[in-house]
Amino acid sequence: MNLRQTITALLMSLLAAAGLCSCGSSHGTHLLYVTTGQGIYAYRIDNKSRQSTSIFSAPFAVGNASGGIVISPSGQFAYVANEDDNTISQYKIDPVSGALTEVLPRTPAGGFSPNSMVMDTSGSTLFVGNQLSNNVSAFSVGSGGTLSQMSAPAVVGSQPSNLVFANGLLFVAVPNFSRVYVFSVSSGALTAVNGSPLIVSNGVASVTVDPSAKFLYSPSLSNSTISAYGIQYSSSTNTISLAVIPGSPFSVNSTTNTTPAAPVAAIFDTTATHLYVANFGVGSISQFSVGTDGSLKLLTTPTVSVGTNPALLIMDTDGKHVLVGNIGSKNVTDLVINSDATLGTAGQSITVPGAPQGLGIAK
Amino acid sequence: MRIPRLSPTLTKTAALYFAVFCFTSLASGQSFFKMPEINVFAGYSLLRFDSVPLGYSQTLNLHGGNVEVSLPDLYQGLGIVADFSGHHSPQAEQFNFMIGPQYRHEVKSVQLFGNLLFGKTRTRLLQVGTSLLEPSTVGYSVAFGGGIDVPLGQRFSIRALQADYFVNSAFGDKRHNMRYSTGVVIRFGKKSEAPSF
Fold it and tell me: How many CB atoms lie within 10 A of CB B31?
């Protein structure tokens, strides 16, 4: 083969290679949004490899002191609470680029220092807990994602720490009084349920309720325990009461630890048969199985280590991973739910430029 | 010893001298009164933009145009080509200006060519939301590829395909793209005899 033939062969090979290069495909991915004091950071997570890629155009602008973030069930919109502005920011999510585009103007929160938020399962109502005005606002979500306040905010006794919506009821944790306020929700209107507020002994850091609203769990910062209650609710009389589950409160540690575990948040798996608890003080997640009577039992491997000061928990859209926001180490730990329900590390932890204040996941 | 960098003026002057040298060389190899062969290509171009490392869900397809002006046979099938292309999609756009050597070879009247191009590229991300960052950047670019021209008579050819592996610097990293072009080539001047089997 002479020089010219060689060059010709090289050219043909190059064209063939070019064709092959264009045939690559990518796995499915989804988006993680993390609110911080510096803006909203965004990451695309590969469903298969769990590798995360920072969205180039992040951080996205946000109001002062952004707190909680909620993604609509459709994955089209994100809402962020701006604590110092007393507003809610609405964003459109670009599924291709992952970019957030804020829709102005921002919506007044209906109170002071909005922080925690939750959306009902249909995505038609957004509830906002306002820490300084000690109330909860409800907003209807329009077809374009716009928010409209539905009624006067419902008053709770003190600062709400988190909100949970389950089976038509809104549960609001109020740590200062060790109470959980409960509201029935009808067309966005919040009506205090008879028997509310519920008294939770041992203290309330937050509240977690299973989707059918049968059991209520509340981590106790000071006692390093989880208080567990059965919920008795009558819709006909709109009355609620709690029954202590035998064995409650349950310790989050299997062994005595000199450092307080300080549990702050808990989350169910998708079947509500296991509960995972973030231990702020020791940087771990406690793993419980949930009995049919609501009792908790630590798994054989009782805890899994995460970053420093874990405080935020969110279930991935696939239901097979739990993401943990670590305030102290300023990162997000990606944990896989193994077949035995224990948590294992999946992929590398995601470093965030600021302390995470809220986590949101879009499909 | 520290070697001083050339000023922009000196760089431009050097480029001008180089261009004059090329044309002078061309003229010396041709009859003074005969126009050298100049090929002008214009056509559609697709850029497979390496957007996944920027957090996009997929490689973006940017559509646009490609124009090339080439002196195809300065010496034994070697020539020089100037290449401009622009590509756009709702998410991003990119404009490239490059220049470099081209080798052309004829097989049974079909022209095969390969090129190595260097230049500058402007890349702009369009749907960045309420980003706090500047979504536009200018960086170097290098393209390595080739194509096939099928003649239609004396003056026209169809560029069946040109494919280039296209690397450019943008947003703090290298982007590994592929570019595909197709269109029409118009020849001006006397046809050179490209090397053939």
Answer: 9
CA A132 – CA A159 distance, rounded (Å) = 6
Q: Could you tell me whether strands A135-141 and A147-149 are parallel, antiparallel, or unpaired per DSSP bridges?
A: antiparallel
To test the contact with chain B by mutation, choose from A11, A22, A23, A77 the residue with the greatest count of B C-beta atoms within 10 A, namely A11
Q: What is the pLDDT of residue B24?
A: 47
Contact between B56 and A18 using a beta-carbon 8 Å cutoff: no
Residue A343's contacts (CB-CB under 8 Å, 6 or more residues apart) are A276, A285, A287, A304, A322, A335, A336, A337
Q: In Å, how far from its chain's centre is CA A202?
A: 24
A21 vs B contacts (CB less than 8 Å): 48, 165, 178
- pLDDT given for residue A27 in this prediction: 60
What CATH number should be reported for the domain holding residue B130? Answer: 2.40.160.20
Question: Domain count of chain B?
Answer: 1
Q: Which residues pair with A321 in a beta bridge?
A: A336
Domain assignment present for B94: yes
Q: Do A7 and B133 touch (CB under 8 A)?
A: no
Tokens found for residue B193: 């005899």
Chain A contacts of B103, Cβ < 8 Å?
A: 7
Please check whether residue B174 lies inside any domain of the structure: yes
Residue B48 lies in a domain: yes
N-terminal to C-terminal alpha carbon distance within chain B? 51
Structural domain for B162, as ranges: 35-188
Query: Are residues B180 and A60, on separate chains, in Cβ contact within 8 Å?
Result: no
Residue A104 to chain B, least CA–CA distance (Å): 11
Task: Kindly state whether A339 is in contact with chain B, defined as any CB-CB distance less than 8 angstroms.
Answer: no
Residue B1 has pLDDT above 50, yes or no: no
Q: pLDDT tens digits, residue range B42-96?
A: 999 999 999 999 999 999 999 999 999 999 888 888 999 999 999 999 999 999 9
Percent of chain B beyond pLDDT 70?
79
Q: Would you say the ipTM is above 0.85? A: no
Whether cis (ω within 30° of 0) applies to the bond prior to A197 is yes
Query: Do residues A179 and A162 lie in contact, with contact meaning Cβ atoms separated by under 8 Å?
Result: no
State pTM to two decimals. Answer: 0.83
Q: What is the three-class DSSP state of A4?
A: helix
Q: What is the mean pLDDT of residues A235-239?
A: 92
**Is B189:B38 a contact under the CB 8 Å cutoff?**
yes
Per-residue pLDDT tens over the stretch B108-128: 889 999 999 999 999 999 888
Residue B19 has pLDDT above 60, yes or no: no
Residue B3 inside a domain? The answer is no
